[in-house]
Amino acid sequence: MGEAEQRYVQEAFITNWIAPLGPNVDGFEREVSEMTGARGAVALSSGTAGLHLALKLAGVGRGDTVFVSTLTFVASVNPILYEGAEPVFIDSDFETWNMSPKALERALVAARKEGRLPKAVMVVNLYGQSADMDPIIDLCERFGIPIIEDAAESLGATYKGKASGTLGEFGIYSFNGNKIITTSGGGMLVSDNAEALSKARYWATQSREPALHYEHSEVGYNYRMSNLLAGVGRGQLQQLENRISARRAVFDRYEQTLGNIEGVSFMPEANFGRSTRWLTALTINPHMTGIATTDLLRALADENIEARPVWKPMHLQPLLRKYDYFPHMPQYSVSDQLFKQGICLPSGTAMSVQDQGRVIDCISHHIRLSAKHAAI
Ligand SMILES: *Cc1c(COP(=O)(O)O)cnc(C)c1O
């Protein structure tokens, strides 16, 4: 947190705007739409709330299906279940780690054959990088399906010059504590469809009708962002470009020091745009390095270094195993492979070069050790 955040929050205190509306909410919405180029934005209590409202705007209801990236955090899928709809999981490709257009095409063709096209396709942009949107947009236009972009992890990323999150009908950002900028908890729904956004604003305020007495004719939600937290968000937004530079510098240091170890591969940055490198993610080939990711994660934990596997794909989750899954190729699942071999490294903006050196030393030490054992 910096001084700008404090100033905005203080202003909210002084003017006594502590409600889930007020000048900071309006300001934050305006600033996010200006920065992303979206026509409008609605500030919400979480990114998950944004996905929920986007699904409702796409008309998703009981018995419908929604296609969604399998390699993601469960928050992408839960709102589909809230509406009584069924997710169908789509694999990643190796170039972006995001939705595979090939798998999407197979899934759409199969769905049409069954006469059961999805109500929406939710594309997730992982670890700060956009999916390859053009082929995905072409497919969705061909089949007449709206796109929802889960850009919770990709605020500030670009795709062919456009802001990640603004390429579909609806996009959402998250300002949860772990994201590149944060309001401690919060989210934003963006779209060019002003009418849809006012509907979302209405649903997010308990579907309160414009009447003095409390009048309601639809189910509503308490999903608006508070004016205090929007103040934090406005201050944080001013830091976004600095954070992206810092995260990219963290990535570069990891890549320069670990990138030439055989069997270590970093998440590629596709040439269609800029990744924010929100998290540095890489894969460790156990045959080439002699070490399994689980053992490397344990070795890091032993030195009090917090690293994590790549997201466990949704089609492997006990909650979701019963739903359909379309892998990248009929006999080959990219996300399974990324989950088995992938690791996310500490990537915080505030991490010192010394701390990062400790992570790098630990990894190269353990890989060298395993290689030596293998040689013996
Ligand atoms: C964080 C995250 C969300 C959810 O955002 P919240 O603000 O925590 O509700 C959704 N999708 C992905 C991919 C995320 O990483």
Describe this structure in words.
- It comes from Paenibacillus spongiae.
- This is DegT/DnrJ/EryC1/StrS family aminotransferase.
- Keywords: Aminotransferase, Pyridoxal phosphate, Transferase.
- Belongs to the DegT/DnrJ/EryC1 family.
- The protein is an alpha/beta fold.
- It contains 13 helices and 14 strands.
- The strands form 3 sheets. An 8-stranded mixed beta sheet has the order 1-9-8-5-4-2-3-13, sandwiched between helices.
- β2, α4 and β3 form a beta-alpha-beta unit.
- α1 runs antiparallel to α8 (227-237) and α2 packs parallel to α8 (227-237).
- The longest helix has 23 residues, at 353-375.
- Bound molecules: pyridoxal-5'-phosphate.
- Pyridoxal-5'-phosphate binds at residues 46-48, 72-73, 75-76, 124, 150, 152-153, 174, 176, 187.
Task: Please tag this protein with its features.
376 residues; alpha/beta; Aspartate Aminotransferase, domain 2; Aspartate Aminotransferase, domain 1; 2 domains; eight-stranded mixed β-sheet; four-stranded antiparallel β-sheet; 13 helices; globular; binds pyridoxal-5'-phosphate; PyrdxlP-dep_Trfase_small; PyrdxlP-dep_Trfase; transaminase activity; aminotransferase
Shape: globular
Tally of helical segments? 13
Oligomer: single chain
The major β-sheet equals: 8 strands, mixed
Question: What is the chain-wise order of helices and strands?
Answer: HHEHEHEHEHEEEEEHHHEEHHEEHEH
Query: CATH homologous superfamily of the largest domain?
Result: Type I PLP-dependent aspartate aminotransferase-like (Major domain)
Compute the number of structural domains.
Answer: 2
What is the rounded Rg? 21 Å
CATH topology group of the largest domain: Aspartate Aminotransferase, domain 2
Strand line-up of the largest beta sheet: 1-9-8-5-4-2-3-13
CATH architectural category of the largest domain: 3-Layer(aba) Sandwich
User: How many β strands by DSSP?
Assistant: 14
- Bound small molecules, which ones? pyridoxal-5'-phosphate
Low-confidence stretches: none
What is the CATH level 1 assignment of the largest domain?
Alpha Beta
The percent range for strand residues is 5-15%
How far is it from the N-terminal to the C-terminal residue, by CA?
51 Å
Q: Helix coverage percent of residues?
A: 40-55%
Please, what is the average pLDDT?
A: 96
| Category by helix and strand content | alpha/beta
GO molecular function, one term: transaminase activity
InterPro entries: DegT/StrS_aminotransferase (IPR000653), PyrdxlP-dep_Trfase (IPR015424), PyrdxlP-dep_Trfase_major (IPR015421), PyrdxlP-dep_Trfase_small (IPR015422)
Protein name: DegT/DnrJ/EryC1/StrS family aminotransferase
Keywords: Aminotransferase, Pyridoxal phosphate, Transferase
